[in-house]
């Protein structure tokens, strides 16, 4: 009897301690987004409607998401250092983007970081950069435009095109990883190259204090990833890139919350959804690899429908990137 009573007391103590741990420290040290005009906390992130309009949504810390201008635009804004863009969206909406972002800081647009060479992420570069300024020595504003960062492959490929204006091209490039030379709005900003993923010039951007990762097009919530074979993309590279994101991300509790991830297209996620996406692509990769080892042709692989159980969520038979195009890209990528 005494032993049973002791066990019951011990179990009750453990349960109470665990409950206290969960409820006594809700989102400890979590940063709250603040309205720059009133200094009041902003509401939690919501999800932008795909209605053709621009939507500016707080994410976490200094970071916001601007949706509706081609690819997602990640914004870091503060009165300490100004405004930083991750991707610039479409040229057609660039003026409206600048007007929407201006009130977020008393200081200018300083930097643009491109996650790839895709035009829905870079065609707004020229207008947005021209609307900004850089600082020279002594923290004095210069007459130069905002600096544009990207992986060196982005500049190489954009330079070969006759249709891309000079003002849209990166002014600064890097090879493997680059940190901004100083804190920006109170935090470190890291640019990390993901080789041969969506393209051969993909960058993920990590805002270390806000705890937000801008993933670019290696991660989408709107469909299967675009594997741009002509520009150096590969299926395995995308999986490796998703694993890199998961290495950086730290969940708040049981894989939920904590680090937030902004995809190239779609809604804000936590690491759980990145892991689901990674697992889905790994399963599809292994299925197609098995079919290739059996000597199946591309048409036979397409007929076998290796994505069947994921098509209701990610598949498409219309638009610029269909399920059929994805399967073909996976097949050709793995045959190399």
Can you walk me through this structure?
By secondary structure, this protein is of the alpha/beta class. The chain has a domain at 55-273: Ribonuclease Z/Hydroxyacylglutathione hydrolase-like (Metallo-beta-lactamase, Chain A), CATH 3.60.15. The chain contains ten helices and 15 strands. The strands form three sheets. Strands 1-2-3-4-5-8-9 form a seven-stranded mixed beta sheet. The longest helix is centred in the N-terminal third of the chain and has 23 residues, at 2-24. The protein is globular. Residues 5-37 and 42-47 have low confidence and may be disordered.
SSE diagram, text form:
Elements: H1 2-24, E1 55-60, E2 63-67, E3 73-78, E4 82-86, H2 94-101, E5 109-113, H3 119-122, H4 125-130, E6 135-136, E7 140-141, E8 147-151, H5 152-160, E9 172-174, E10 177-179, E11 189-194, E12 202-207, E13 212-220, H6 235-248, E14 260-265, E15 269-270, H7 271-293, H8 298-304, H9 311-314, H10 323-335
Parallel strand pairs: 4-5, 5-8, 8-9, 13-14
Antiparallel strand pairs: 1-2, 2-3, 3-4, 6-7, 10-11, 11-12, 12-13, 14-15
Helix pairs in contact: 6-7, 7-10
């Amino acid at each position: 009897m005494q032993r049973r009573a002791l066990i019951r007391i011990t179990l009750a103590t453990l349960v109470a301690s665990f409950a206290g741990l969960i409820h006594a420290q809700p989102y400890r040290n979590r940063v709250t987004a603040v309205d720059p005009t009133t200094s009041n906390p902003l509401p939690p992130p919501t999800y932008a409607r795909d209605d053709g309009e621009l939507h500016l949504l707080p994410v976490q810390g200094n970071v916001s998401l601007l949706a509706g201008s081609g690819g997602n635009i990640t914004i870091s804004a503060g009165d300490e250092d100004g405004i930083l863009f991750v991707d610039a969206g479409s040229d057609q909406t660039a003026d409206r983007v600048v007007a929407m972002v201006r009130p977020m800081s008393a200081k200018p647009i300083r930097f643009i970081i491109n996650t790839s060479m895709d035009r829905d992420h870079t065609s707004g570069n020229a207008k947005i950069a021209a609307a900004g300024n850089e600082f020279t020595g002594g923290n004095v504003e210069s007459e130069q435009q905002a600096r544009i960062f990207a992986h060196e492959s982005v500049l190489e490929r954009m330079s070969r095109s006759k249709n891309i204006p000079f003002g849209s091209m990166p002014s600064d490039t890097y090879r493997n990883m680059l940190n901004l030379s100083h804190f920006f709005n109170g935090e470190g900003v890291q640019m990390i190259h993901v080789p041969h993923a969506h393209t051969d010039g993909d960058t993920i951007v990590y805002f270390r204090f806000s705890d937000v990762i801008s993933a670019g097009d290696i991660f989408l919530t709107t469909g299967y990833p675009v594997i741009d074979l002509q520009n150096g993309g590969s299926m395995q590279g995308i999986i490796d890139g998703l694993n890199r994101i998961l290495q950086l991300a730290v969940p708040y509790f049981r894989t939920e919350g904590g680090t937030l991830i902004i995809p190239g297209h779609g809604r804000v996620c936590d690491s759980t959804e990145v892991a689901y996406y990674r697992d889905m692509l790994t399963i599809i990769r292994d299925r197609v690899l098995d079919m290739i080892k059996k000597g199946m042709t591309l048409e036979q692989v397409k007929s076998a429908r290796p994505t069947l159980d994921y098509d209701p969520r990610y598949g498409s038979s219309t638009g610029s990137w269909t399920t059929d195009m994805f399967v073909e890209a996976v097949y050709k990528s793995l045959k190399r």
